[in-house]
Inverse folding.
DNA sequence: GCAAGGTC
């Protein structure tokens, strides 16, 4: 059997391109975690079987181990010394397993990851997953390609090299530094300020070496605006009438900040009354065509001209790319490779009705080579790949695609040429001028009309000519502050200072919006919020480095030493981490300075919120703080209790939890399918029973069993044996869809329903009943809890107008006929037909945990026969 | 609930 060669690309589209080129299109493709393309060919002179597949970006990301995950237990300072480990970035995609399976039986591995540091790092992630290098007879190669073209792919294939460990280690270093610094500061700030103020309006007060300087730029502009002092100025504006045109003359002095002096000039000029033409000059000017389009410039135009935020712009560009309309949209390069096939690209677009005729002219008259821009060695500039119409793309994608096309055509069109005429005048020894512009060659501005030169015609003048002044105005103006930073300006600043990459700039901008540090206002201007301003001003007081862009360049410069092999990875990491640790300690020590700014902006927890429910410890009312993260605050005990987020919270009939005496609350999640459930604020935050491994609202906590803060145990997960609100009392039967238990919704009247305490399954009970409640009895047939229904007198289905009915919703014929099941995911409506459900004999807690009380019975509830 | 970097 022919030896097998595994090739791995960074994304599925590249795997497809590589396989297509190397197989000449003759390959078979099968699905897996990502697609695998297979074909036969030759490798180093041997006949081999190729398998080409891909990862989806990084396979792993770094994290702290579980014992450093609890915000309340871990001192953020310890994070600097904490171990870190790699976890799969997207466990659901099973990329690790996929690579390991596909590597089985392969003798060679060829790495086709993008040719940058990150790509080099992913190379080693792939090597780790495939288990290569364990066995010396298996070889690992790196393909270096500068574009996904047939030429480059074949060239890379015949010039295979080794992956670069130094570059990969530089990325490891960056990951560790970013994680430790970001998480330490974020946790400290969040804990400190959220424990003090009730109206911060941000779930997390984050810090990061990219996001914070990004915010810094916005606040810096804001501070320029607020500290701006306007000044009045004056300008003399004489008017003349020449050949029937009225012309305003521009003053050589432009403006003066003294009204008396300006007034004096006005008087002098009025007294003279005659201007003399002292000079006429004509100059040929040139406005150069653009160079190739890179990501950052695309994002800037998208924001300033199309009104698309960077995130939307990238989404649209990504889609255009995967659909084959434009080339890879994440590139720094603005210069085209010398081999680039411009004619081919033009021919691919020539049929387009929007600019077909323009392209025909270019092809006929000869297009130009683009100006040389910068070549970052990644991907070529963003270029249209095939023709499209608005109908094919939809409005937004079309507008972006249209710009990409116009920009591309602009790059190979002639420059714009125009004649600039300046007429100089003199009056009372003061000099004035006016300017005319006349386009001689439109060039690229005919396809990018918004960049066109404004034409202004001037009437004829002759040197020495004397003209009477028709009037002399004294213009009074005042200087104005700059506007808020536009998103497009911010992108320029980020690029200039190396904050983020072409792929991540949009993420950082989005971040500072989501954290409520800035708001995007009309015209995509970024206006910092009181929170954003307080943070940056605080850093400026304590340690300005923390919010300056240099913090990123410092990290970059340090890890570049690793990438170049000039410094040892661990030593660099240690050095940088120690520096940040010192900065962190100082920041913590001086936090009062930042706090003074917060005090002026925000209200203390004790002043926030409304009284809602009683604390079980001191029996006084606690305050409900509705701003994110919503929580209860007991002013007497000075304790904070988080509540389920995103739901409406209210008091539950002044009932109290038998375990701790805290008053119960009701949470209603939004939407008609939203659960409504009761919870005890204390139990919710500190589940009292062992063995509860399902938490409500816990995010990707995984199976670690660690209880995340703000995620917890509502009554529907509580195994309390006698409390009337627990799942033991309110659970009716096993969920037909999952391992959960169907629980009676306590406040669903009159549309009584059961919901699953684990998944989204919903079951509607007889509508219009006065009361539906669980009993302590179980069905002799199926072991479900017997329910008691008190029907409405007018609508009761019972004989002789009786209203009370007791039975099992599965086995009682009447009840069963009135029950209806609904599930969002799999079926919209499913009437209770017989014998269609799986019998799942279990409920929430049987056989597990419950060590705190008696062993919980498994009531063996099921939907048998439903 | 945390960073920044890939990519979807």
């Amino acid at each position: 059997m022919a030896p097998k060669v595994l090739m791995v690309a960074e994304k599925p589209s590249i795997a497809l391109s590589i396989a297509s080129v190397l197989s000449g299109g003759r390959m078979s493709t099968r699905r897996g975690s990502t697609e695998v393309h297979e074909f036969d060919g030759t490798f180093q002179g041997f006949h081999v079987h190729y398998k080409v597949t891909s990862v989806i970006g990084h396979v792993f990301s770094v994290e702290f181990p579980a014992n450093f995950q609890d915000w309340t237990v871990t001192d953020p300072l310890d994070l600097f010394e904490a171990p870190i480990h790699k976890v799969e970035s997207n466990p659901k995609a099973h990329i690790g397993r996929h690579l390991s399976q596909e590597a089985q039986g392969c003798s060679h591995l060829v790495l086709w990851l993008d040719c940058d540091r990150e790509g080099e790092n992913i190379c080693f992630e792939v090597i780790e997953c495939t288990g290569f290098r364990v066995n010396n007879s298996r070889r690992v190669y790196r393909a270096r390609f500068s574009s996904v073209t047939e030429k480059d792919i074949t060239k890379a294939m015949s010039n295979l090299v080794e992956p670069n460990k130094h570059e990969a280690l530089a990325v490891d270093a960056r990951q560790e530094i970013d994680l430790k610094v970001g998480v330490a500061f974020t946790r400290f700030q969040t804990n400190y300020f959220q424990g003090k103020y009730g109206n911060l309006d941000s779930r997390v007060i984050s810090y990061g070496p990219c996001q914070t300087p990004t915010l810094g730029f916005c606040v810096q502009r804001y501070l320029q605006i607020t500290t701006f002092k306007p000044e009045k100025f004056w300008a003399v504006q004489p008017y003349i009438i020449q050949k029937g045109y009225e012309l305003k003359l521009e003053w050589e002095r432009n403006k003066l900040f003294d009204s008396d002096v300006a007034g004096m000039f006005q008087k002098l000029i009025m007294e003279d009354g005659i201007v003399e033409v002292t000079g006429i000059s004509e100059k040929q000017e040139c406005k150069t065509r653009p160079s190739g389009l890179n990501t950052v410039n695309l994002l800037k135009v998208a924001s300033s001209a199309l009104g698309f935020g960077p995130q939307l712009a990238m989404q649209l560009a990504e889609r255009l790319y995967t659909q084959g309309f434009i080339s890879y949209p994440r590139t720094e390069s603005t210069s085209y490779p010398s081999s680039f096939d411009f004619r081919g690209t033009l021919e691919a677009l020539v049929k387009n009705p929007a600019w077909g005729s323009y392209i025909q002219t270019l092809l006929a008259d000869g297009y130009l080579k683009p100006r040389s821009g910068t070549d970052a060695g990644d991907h070529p500039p963003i270029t249209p790949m095939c023709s499209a119409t608005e109908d094919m793309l939809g409005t937004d994608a079309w507008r972006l695609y249209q710009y990409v096309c116009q920009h591309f055509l602009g790059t190979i069109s002639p420059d714009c040429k125009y004649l600039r005429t300046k007429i100089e005048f003199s009056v009372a020894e003061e000099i004035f001028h006016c300017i005319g512009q006349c386009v001689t060659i439109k060039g690229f501005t005919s396809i990018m009309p918004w960049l066109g030169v404004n034409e202004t015609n001037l009437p004829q003048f002759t040197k020495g000519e004397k003209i009477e002044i028709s009037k002399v105005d004294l213009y009074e103006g005042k200087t104005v502050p700059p506007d808020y930073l536009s998103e497009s300006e911010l992108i320029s600043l980020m690029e200039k200072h190396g904050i983020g990459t072409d792929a991540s700039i949009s993420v950082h901008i989005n971040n500072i919006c989501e954290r409520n540090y800035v708001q995007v206002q009309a015209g995509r201007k970024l206006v910092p919020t009181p929170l954003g301003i307080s943070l940056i001003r605080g850093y400026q007081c304590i340690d300005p480095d923390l919010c300056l862009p240099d913090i990123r360049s410092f990290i970059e410069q340090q890890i570049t030493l690793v990438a170049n092999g000039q410094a040892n990875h661990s030593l660099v990491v240690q050095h940088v981490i120690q520096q940040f640790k010192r900065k962190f300690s100082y920041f913590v020590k001086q936090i009062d300075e930042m706090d003074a700014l917060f005090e002026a902006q925000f209200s203390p927890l004790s002043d926030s919120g409304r009284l809602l429910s009683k604390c079980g410890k001191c029996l006084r009312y606690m305050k409900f703080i509705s701003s994110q993260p919503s929580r209860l605050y007991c002013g007497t005990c000075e304790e904070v209790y988080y509540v389920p987020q995103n739901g409406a919270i209210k008091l539950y009939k002044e009932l109290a939890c038998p375990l701790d005496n805290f008053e119960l609350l009701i949470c209603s999640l939004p939407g008609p399918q939203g659960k409504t459930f009761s919870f005890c604020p204390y139990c919710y935050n500190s589940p009292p029973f062992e063995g509860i491994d399902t938490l409500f609202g816990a995010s990707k906590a995984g199976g670690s069993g660690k209880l995340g803060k703000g995620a917890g145990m509502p009554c529907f997960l509580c195994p309390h044996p006698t409390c009337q609100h627990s799942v033991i009392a309110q659970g009716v039967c096993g969920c037909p869809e999952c391992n959960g238990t169907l629980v009676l919704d306590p406040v669903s009247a009159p549309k009584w329903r059961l919901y699953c305490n684990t998944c989204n399954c919903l079951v509607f009970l007889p509508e219009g009943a006065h009361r539906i409640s669980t009993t302590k009895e179980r069905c002799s047939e199926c072991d479900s809890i017997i329910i008691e229904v008190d029907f409405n007198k007018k609508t009761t289905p019972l004989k002789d107008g009786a209203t009370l009915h007791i039975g099992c919703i599965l086995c009682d014929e009447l009840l069963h006929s009135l029950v209806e099941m609904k599930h969002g995911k799999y079926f919209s409506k499913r009437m209770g037909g017989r014998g269609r459900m799986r019998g799942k004999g279990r409920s929430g807690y049987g056989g597990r945990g419950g060590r705190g009380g008696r062993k919980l019975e498994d009531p063996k509830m099921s939907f048998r026969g439903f």
